[in-house]
Design brief:
Blueprint lengths: L5 H7 L1 H14 L6 H14 L3 E5 L2 H11 L7 E5 L5 H8 L3 E5 L10 H7 L4 E4 L11 H11 L2 E5 L7 E2 L2 E2 L6 E5 L13 E5 L2 H10 L21 H11 L2 H18 L6 E2 L14 E5 L2 H10 L29 H9 E4 L7 H17 L1
Parallel strand pairs: 2-3, 2-4, 4-5, 5-8
Antiparallel strand pairs: 1-9, 6-7, 8-9, 10-11, 11-12
Helix pairs in contact: 2-9, 3-9, 4-5, 4-8, 10-13
Bound molecules: pyridoxal-5'-phosphate.
The site of pyridoxal-5'-phosphate has 14 residues, from helix 4.
Length: 367
């Protein structure tokens, strides 16, 4: 059993994927080929954003977004204590200071209240992260940002294709970013990312910043990065978009089967969606007592699992100079000790899921 079965996806859709790659190879337009703009237009339409800007990765998109918003050394940006490191990392790399906000139990994401508690007079913006495939409470967070004169970046690296009260992930905030890392719900065959915005000035700035701040023909108006999306990745993504909706449906079906077969196992808590949310199930992350022993048992039975994430950000060695300690974010700390992601991809079979459930139930029963 695979944790995420990318090989199977390739074999099932080999013909259109190979054709997409061969098309770019023979065109030789490896950088800034027409597929990049076509993908930008398609995804802007899907998300409901005015503009989309292709990037070399989700992390590149975060760096470029922060540069476009004018982050300065010493500026504070609020981001979650429990999530992947990329947003906090990008803030620090540009001289800013990440200020962590506690997450709530149900969705493991920040709320208006927890972000509000983290604001100071130095705060310039907030970066809520959509976790495991569903959106954070982004309307309330956007409202808070507006009230306080802050910018907001939605980190939609795990949620592209999901919606919240009818609005698509990637449509919130001054800028939203996403990632096409292979394991994400819409993944390419290497690194890739995108930024979305409703603001044409920000879009213009980001287009420059992703190519060394080049305004036109080696006229550098600001310093940027090499953060472009490869043409071949854009072509692969355009091909994958032809079956993306179907894969999201299959992921939701798999989540439903898990909910059925994993219900009523003592000591196991299943993921829940916030009201108004749909999910693309980037991860199916349960919470389990005795996680270490359960993980070892599942591994012995050939069932792969992963931990997203074993250590909250305020406990990461690299952030120790922020002066935070164990006990600062109790929910983030508890989640880090209990979360366990189970195999999740569109081609998981009911038999495989029943096996996962049987092994978990058998182990938890023994306790
Ligand atoms: C994957 C991910 C990123 C980074 O994306 P890359 O394309 O790997 O750089 C950022 N934020 C979150 C929440 C992610 O899951």
């Amino acid at each position: 059993m695979e944790f995420i079965d990318l090989k199977q996806q390739y074999l099932r859709h080999r013909e259109i994927l190979d054709r997409a790659m061969a098309g770019v190879a023979s065109s030789a337009r490896y950088i800034n080929g027409p597929q990049v703009a076509e993908l930008e237009e398609t995804l802007a339409g899907m998300v409901g954003a005015r503009e989309a800007v292709g990037m070399g990765s989700g992390t590149d998109a975060l760096l470029v977004a922060l540069l476009a918003l004018g982050l300065k050394p010493g500026d504070e940006v609020v981001c979650p204590a429990f999530t992947f490191i990329a947003a906090a990392e990008a803030i620090v790399l540009l001289g800013g200071r990440p200020v962590f906000a506690e997450v709530e139990e149900a969705g493991a994401m920040v709320t208006r209240e927890t972000v509000e508690q983290a604001l100071t007079e130095k705060t310039v913006g907030i970066i809520p992260v959509d976790l495991f495939g569903q959106c954070a409470p982004l309307e309330e967070l956007g409202e808070l940002a507006r009230e306080r004169g802050l910018w907001m970046i939605e980190d939609a690296a795990q949620s592209l294709g999901a919606s919240r009260n009818g609005a698509m992930a990637g449509s919130f905030g001054h800028i939203a970013i996403t990632s096409f890392y292979p394991a994400k719900p819409l993944g390419c065959m290497g690194e890739g990312g995108m930024a979305f915005t409703g603001d044409p000035d920000l879009a213009f700035r980001m287009r420059g910043l992703r190519a060394h701040g080049d305004a036109s023909g080696y006229e550098h108006v600001r310093l940027g990065l090499n953060a472009r999306l490869d043409t071949i990745q854009a072509a692969i993504l355009l091909a994958k978009l032809s079956f993306f909706e179907e894969e999201v449906r299959l992921r939701n079906q798999a989540a439903q089967v898990y909910e059925e077969v994993l219900s009523n196992i003592p000591g196991l808590r299943l993921p829940a969606l916030l009201p108004g949310n749909t999910s693309v199930w980037a991860q199916y992350t349960v919470r389990a007592e005795q996680r270490t022993e359960l993980t070892a048992h599942l591994r012995e039975q050939g069932i792969p699992t992963a931990i997203h994430y074993p250590k909250p950000l305020h406990r990461q060695p690299v952030f120790q100079d922020l002066g935070l300690d164990q006990g600062n974010f109790p929910t983030a700390e508890r989640l880090s000790g209990e979360v366990l992601s189970l195999p999740m991809h569109p081609y998981l079979t009911r038999d495989q899921q029943e096996l996962v459930a049987r092994e978990i139930a058998g182990f938890m029963g023994k306790g």
